[in-house]
Design brief:
The structure holds two protein chains of two kinds. By secondary structure, chain A is mainly α. Chain A has three helices and no strands. Classes of the chains: A mainly alpha, B mainly alpha.
């Protein structure tokens, strides 16, 4: 059977829900950030696959992927700055310890 | 089965396997390395789809940037080699079930849907085309998002410096 769009969509769906599983089970902020990176990657795969198989003459999917990669980089940098600040104040990066905004 | 599909299945198995290990590994440093392999697998998938420029960007930004940043933050916040505590068994079971059910649902939707190509003849993806369209100010040009992303990156950079700046003693409010 020849590999087509559906196969790639199955792959990206599997990657997305692996990321969701990791996000739900992990309680460590850095590993949760890693799960979010997996989610963003699966979305990028979707954009590229749709662009290649459905809109071969256009570039829209490529642009969305490029902008998503830039936004993911900014997001990771800000998240890590927050994590390091949190660690400095609480000596822990467990999400259960981040409760000072709780009423 | 042609060699093309065999390569695709190899890449897919590599991506899925290392992603699974990345979300289940007990040692955080190993999880970061598995994430690195998963990103390399995604770049290989882009190469397989002959989108070389995107694959190069993926390797530069994700493998060379984000994963290295994550590894540095692990070094700053962890004793390397120590194991994380095991997640709650109940939470593991329910998260796995939720992810599995959602996956099955999406699987069915994708398998049923028929995708109709509608973009004309496929053109090769050259860097020249990307650059011309990204910086064009006419219709279908992407100059505005390009500038907005540059502002976003500047704001993120300044924000990171401000957040991670060491506060003087006595200013930390608990």
């Amino acid at each position: 059977m020849e590999v087509g769009l559906t196969h790639i969509l199955f792959l990206s769906t599997a990657l997305f829900f692996i990321g969701v599983y990791g996000f739900l089970t992990r309680r460590n902020t850095i590993t949760m950030l890693m799960a979010i990176e997996l989610l963003l990657n699966s979305v990028n795969i979707n954009f590229i696959a749709f662009n290649k198989y459905l809109y071969g003459g256009k570039l829209e999917g490529v642009f969305f992927t490029l902008f998503l990669i830039a936004i993911a980089a900014a997001e990771a940098a800000v998240a890590i700055a927050i994590i390091i600040n949190f660690y400095r104040n609480y000596k822990s990066i467990d999400v259960e310890d981040a409760d000072s905004l709780k009423w | 089965m042609s060699i093309n599909s065999i390569i695709f299945y190899l890449i897919a198995a590599f991506i899925i396997g290392s992603a699974l290990l990345a979300v289940t590994a007990r040692k955080i440093f190993r999880a970061a390395i598995y994430l690195l392999f998963s990103m390399i697998g995604v770049a290989a998938l882009y190469f397989w789809m002959s989108y070389e420029f995107i694959a190069a960007v993926q390797i530069i930004v994700y493998v060379g940037g984000i994963v290295v940043l994550i590894i540095f933050s692990i070094f700053l916040t962890h004793h390397v080699g120590s194991e994380m505590e095991k997640p709650n068994r109940l939470r593991m079971v329910f998260s796995g079930l939720a992810a599995l059910c959602a996956f099955a649902f999406s699987f069915m939707v994708i398998a049923k849907n028929e995708f109709v190509p509608s973009g004309g003849a496929p053109l090769p993806l050259t860097v020249e085309r990307i650059g011309m369209q990204m910086l064009s100010t006419t219709e279908h040009g992407y100059i505005l998002p390009f500038e907005v992303v540059s502002m976003l990156l500047l704001a993120a950079m300044v924000g990171c410096i401000v957040i991670a700046l060491k506060q003087p003693e006595g200013q930390i409010q608990r």
